[in-house]
């Protein structure tokens, strides 16, 4: 991927001093090329609303909203102990398999918090062409992915459990695995889970969709 980084002046500085600093080379945008093992997808802050019956409503977000991090134009601020940066990302190459890590856990000085936001995603036909830079789009004949595995975290961060949804390639059926238990599961049920890690397989031209979607 291509990573664009711009250093920001300290927010407490006077406006004139900020303007002067932004003219320095240290504060100009820099671009680096980097390999990646997986893509980290950031969830929005999850406010838990209550309905008329005072029951919590868990927020939802579309997969393509959090994938926008890699469209080359979406900027996000990153803070370190001393400095702040604006970063944006753009994919320059799509591998045969993609791993998404949905960032559900954040750690502060006292404990780990979990974001319960549900990510709405299709099981098949996720096209990532728009996240490629224009100059490399022509080199990618195939940019559509199908989900083949979905790891779910249930419960609290400190005492939760994991389930895995896997696609049986030969039959096109989905199964849920938890410890030694294996059960059938409908594809539409997978999208209701608190997905944590996903594995996607790039669809080649001669492949047929065995999932009927």
UniProtKB/TrEMBL annotation:
Positions of the USP domain: 1-203
Source domain of life: Eukaryota
Record has Hydrolase as a keyword: yes
Keyword Hydrolase found: yes
Gene Ontology BP terms: protein deubiquitination
GO molecular function: cysteine-type deubiquitinase activity
InterPro entries, sorted: Papain-like_cys_pep_sf, Peptidase_C19_UCH, Ub_carboxyl-term_hydrolase, USP
This enzyme's EC code(s): 3.4.19.12
Protein name: ubiquitinyl hydrolase 1
Encoding gene per record: Usp39_1
């Amino acid at each position: 991927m291509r990573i664009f980084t711009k250093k920001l002046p300290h927010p407490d500085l006077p406006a004139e001093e900020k303007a002067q600093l932004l003219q320095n080379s240290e504060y100009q945008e820099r671009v680096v090329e980097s390999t990646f093992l997986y893509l980290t997808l950031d969830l929005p802050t999850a406010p838990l609303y209550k309905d008329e019956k005072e029951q919590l409503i868990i927020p939802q977000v579309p997969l393509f909203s959090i994938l926008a991090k890699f469209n080359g134009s979406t900027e996000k601020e990153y803070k370190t102990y001393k400095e702040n940066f604006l970063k944006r990302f753009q994919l320059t190459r799509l591998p045969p398999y993609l791993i998404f890590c949905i960032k559900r856990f954040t750690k502060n000085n006292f404990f780990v918090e979990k974001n319960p936001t549900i990510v709405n995603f299709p099981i098949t036909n996720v096209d990532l062409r728009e996240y490629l830079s224009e100059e490399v789009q022509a080199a990618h004949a195939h940019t559509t992915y199908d989900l083949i595995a979905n790891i779910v975290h249930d419960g609290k961060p400190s005492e939760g459990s994991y389930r895995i949804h896997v696609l049986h390639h030969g039959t096109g059926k989905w199964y849920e695995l938890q410890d030694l238990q294996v059960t059938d599961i409908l594809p539409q049920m997978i999208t209701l889970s608190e997905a944590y890690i996903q594995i996607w397989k790039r669809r080649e031209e001669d492949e047929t969709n065995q999932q009927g979607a």
